[in-house]
Design brief:
The chain is mostly helical. Helix content is about 60%, strand content about 0%. It comes from Mucilaginibacter mali.
Length: about 130
C-alpha cells in the first residue's frame, strides 16, 4: 500500500493559520488584534504573498517572531515539542516570546470587580448623604 506524501511547502497564509491555531487563537482574536474583520483574516490565511509590514503586524498579534512565522513548519513543532506527561515543551522554531493573550480572563475579572466596587462605593456615598440630611 502506497502512502501519499505532501512535499509542497506551506504558503505564508497557511503558516499564519497553523500558528494561529497552535496558539489557540480564533480568526476573530487575530482580527481584533489587527483592527480588521474576521473575513479579512480569512483572506490573509488564503494568501500566498503578504506585504512585509503586514506580516510583522500579524507575527506580533500571534506572539511569534517574523522569522519564526516565515520559517514555520509543522514537522519542526512536532519534533521539537516533548508531549510526554509531566514534561515541559522545549523552545520550537516558532520562537515564541512572552505575549499577552487578547482575551485574558483574569483582566476581565479584575475589570468587572473594579466596576462592581465603584457601584458599591457610590451606593455607600448615597446612603451616607441621606443619613446626614
Amino acid at each position: 500500500m502506497d502512502s501519499v506524501v505532501n512535499d509542497k511547502p506551506l504558503h505564508i497564509g497557511k503558516k499564519i493559520e497553523r500558528v494561529r491555531k497552535l496558539r489557540g487563537l480564533t480568526q476573530e482574536d487575530v482580527a481584533v488584534g489587527l483592527g480588521i474583520t474576521k473575513q479579512a483574516v480569512s483572506k490573509i490565511e488564503q494568501s500566498e504573498n503578504i506585504e512585509e509590514d503586514r506580516l510583522k503586524q500579524i507575527a506580533d498579534v500571534l506572539g511569534v517572531t517574523l522569522e519564526g512565522l516565515k520559517s514555520f513548519r509543522d514537522e519542526t513543532v512536532l519534533f521539537t515539542a516533548n508531549f510526554y506527561e509531566g514534561s515541559s515543551v522545549t523552545n520550537s522554531s516558532i520562537n515564541t516570546r512572552e505575549c499577552t493573550q487578547i482575551n485574558n480572563p483574569i483582566e476581565k475579572i479584575i475589570e468587572l470587580y473594579e466596576s462592581i466596587l465603584k457601584v458599591e462605593r457610590e451606593k455607600i456615598d448615597i446612603l451616607m448623604n441621606k443619613k446626614n440630611d
